[in-house]
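Homework help board

Subject: predicted structure for assignment chain

Our instructor gave us this sequence and asked us to write out the predicted structure in token form, then describe one feature. I got the tokens but I'm not sure how to describe them. Can anyone check?
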Amino acid sequence: MKSKKSVPWLSVFGVTALAMASVGCATIPQDAAAATQKPVTIVVASWSGTNVTNGIIDRQLAAFNRSHPGIHAVYRPISGDYETILKTEFVAGDAPDIITVNNGGQAPTFESEGAVIPLNSFIAKSHYSLKDFYPGALDMFVTGSTVYGLPRDQSPLALYYNPVLFKRAHISGPPKTWAQFEADARKLTDVKAKVYGLVQTPQEPRWAQFIYQAGGSVMNPAMTKMTLDTPAALKGFSFFIHLYRSGIAAQPSEVGATWGGQALGMGRAAMTLEGAWAIPYLQDTYPNTHFAIVPLPKGPKNNDSLDFPTAWAITKDAKYPQQAWEVIQYLTGAGEAQWVEQGGLVTVRKSLVHMPYYRTHPIYTNIIKQLPTAVPWTFPNGFDQYVNSTLSNETLLAVEGKISPKEALQQLQQQGQNSLQNGGGN
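My token output:
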């Protein structure tokens, strides 16, 4: 939910000034391990998912352990409500040493509550350079000049489309502008067959980029003030709502799906807006459905996309934070290439976008093209209730035609600002 201007170059420069050497090369002395001659165990946790079943993190840590005999890093996937489980463990004082934090409100929550520790001293001591990270991915985990996490992976949104449906509708190629997007969606919609030009959940992570593309923003860079009361915000939001009100966009539930990627795979969506996570899903679940990916259509100002990064962070409960830092150094340094090659993910490092994997997997090309201007999606600690209630409810009312886009934004602006003033911000 941050604006493009929220990528704080000054804060990034402030932390990069701490270290200018090459990525993750130096090693911090393993004081505890050296003293006992026994390996220090570092527990690394993340949520369960495809990467767990593929064993990617396990293989990364196995490679780390072979080159770091004084440290034994083990992986512990967490099933269920990841954030709630971790909060319980933080209260008990037995959280993992390293955790994955994601976008949205999770990173700001753990940072503001002191659950994860600053990394600046480790960065300075090991001469670890931050210059290679995409600013949008790094900014998500930097507050002021304090670094709380190092990016693991990311994905901006891109336009997924079905070339077979486009050909059937006599459309030569995917849309490049809002006008083409609407015109194509109209041609591609067949209500009787339950096929729509766009199938998308009408949530803020899917309409916010239209506001940015119109030159607006959702809130200010400091996340202390809502900015939905501008003509640009109204233009972008109105265009998104107009697609539904015109009958050329549908919610996934209307076509028997739970999200846009599934609707595309089912052949019910001609287009949808998703990130790289949809690629393995579509390939594995709907191998007979043809799909292609292009950058988002351009709005009045740009074709900016939202970005969804994750990062590795050291918890307050880590008994050996220096050794935990060495693990993070590896995972975000040498291990980052493994992460891409074995997991089919979007790198957070500018130097790795040219790696052989992406040349042999061109399906990622147009997702990567969105990275330089992608806007990280996040909101401040305490803002969750507003996001999950008012933000969703007012948008749905506008989609259903019960209120106008202007009325919806007025409510979102007012109630969002109230939330920020009452503790929803930092």
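Reply (TA_rk): Your tokens look well-formed. For the description, you could write something like this. Residues 3-35 have pLDDT under 50 and may be disordered. That's the kind of observation they're looking for.
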